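Deliverable D4.2, example record:
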Amino acid sequence: MNTYLLVENASKAYGDIQLFENLTFVVNEGQKIALIAKNGTGKTTLLNIFTGKDSFDAGSFYINKDIKVGYLEQDPQFNPQLTVFQAAYSSPGELMNAVREYETALHSPDKSLLEGAISKMDFYQAWDFDVKIKQMLSVLKLNDLDQSVAKLSGGQVKRLALAVTLINEPDFLILDEPTNHLDLDMIEWLEEYMAKTQITLLMVTHDRYFLDRVCNEIIEIDEKLAYSYKGNYSYFLEKRQERLFNKNLLTEKAQNLLRRELEWMRRMPKARSTKAKSRIDAFYDLKEQSEYRRNEKQVDINIKTSRLGNKILEMEHVSKSFGDLVMLNDFSYTFSRLEKVGIIGRNGVGKSTFLNLITQRLAHDSGKIDTGETVVYGFYQQLGLQFQPQQRVIDVIREIADVVTLGDGKQMAISQFLTYFLFPPEMQYVPVGKLSGGEKRRLYLMTILMQNPNFLILDEPTNDLDIITLNVLEEYLSNFGGCLIIVSHDRFFMDKLVDHLFIFEGDGNVYDFPGNYSDYRVSQKQIEIEDKRQRAGDKTKPVANAVKQADSGAKKKHSYKEKKELEQIELEMANLEVEKKALEADISTGILSSGELVIKSNRIGEIMKIVDEKTDRWVELNS
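Output generated by the structure prediction step:
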């Protein structure tokens, strides 16, 4: 089997912080490996070492010199003065070097250079390179080739970097958080591309669907060591749990054996120490094993939520445009307690504008936005908090408060609270500039939650967070006592949390879908399949099809009025379901009077009756 990457006994530390130690693993041809570890344990550092941007303190690595390596950085940078096409054309790699060498030889007076350049063009099959560039940029929806790189959004820059990486057709591809800043369509395209191609892959990602569907092996860095799992993310979860369980069993067994060995050590005569040396050595090995205490720390989120009144947020016929660009058109919605809404749509269709309208960071053009008096917004923005690099971690938190109120009403000192968020005392006086991307995100999340919000708005909260922190955040949000709006390209995160979706279609149009992201994709695929069938039928037998539909009483297209009625029914059913859940939550608290219990129970009965009636009408319209 052809080895592409070999890492042996590698160690790396920054000051007193040991990232990993004696790390050993191998990547062979055809493997698609994901690297998983907590934030701050050296994932990006490891990739930077492989690409020559850093080095190990001890140990070594080997990359096969006979293969082409492509590297997609987490936050790629391009010369802002270049156009999209120029940036793609100036990418590194042997293929591009051959093209540039040919261009130089073509315009050089020294015609002897041309023969060698032509040979390289033949070898790399680079004659249609311009076409390849344009095709790849088109697939990745970068159609304005003359657009300045300086004017690209974060998602467009990531797609450009992806195009540059894939154009060179690498044998071995190294990806650092490839799905960050990509919209859902692009993530699904990349997922399908990576799953089908024969390329060898090593990547760092928090996208669990992407990881599960693309990778065939996972390497976990845990407590400075590497553990390999021959399977996808689902297999990894199962086997990791087994590993930890067995480790704990061994520790317990070692403790029992140690007690017996300790008695023997105390009884052993001094004169027999030479004969018993092997047993003494075994004793100390056993002692070390029995003292093992797993450092399975995780973020502990237990923060008070401000009381939320009955009136939360009402939006009536709200519109917003920037010149001719319509971002929101005649939008109306009333938010309810415990509501969890996901927002999806292509980049640039108004999602961030919508959030800024809600939080009054942006004025609306028309309509009405009425926020309840008790609402306390917590707005986690995609760009994050702009920390001063030299500012210490503890000083960032002290600027907000000296103590934090927890969910049980108790107060906690800032230093202790930082420890709960995996910033132990030795890290609290470290400059923010020395934190990893995920650690900065975790610190930013702290600054939002410390303000005890009851209406959380999270714009791409999963970027840079490790999977373990994501699991804890998901658990906290699923039990959050207020309203929640999530904009995320993390399909797994959305599926676990949201009750329904606002779909931003562009031109200011938004519709409410009653379900999570996977439900939405299933419905979209069904629509696509039906559209294809209808188009195929229209092309082959248009007349026969029309007669067949007329004879069989096939479903007619909805009128405009029927479409509007369907949309209204779906919206009302989603709102009723949210209200029902809120009522059930109130009843389960056990603090309501008997009169309140009767009123709320009767309302639940009314809601169920209304939902049944609306379901019947929905079926009738779609039958």
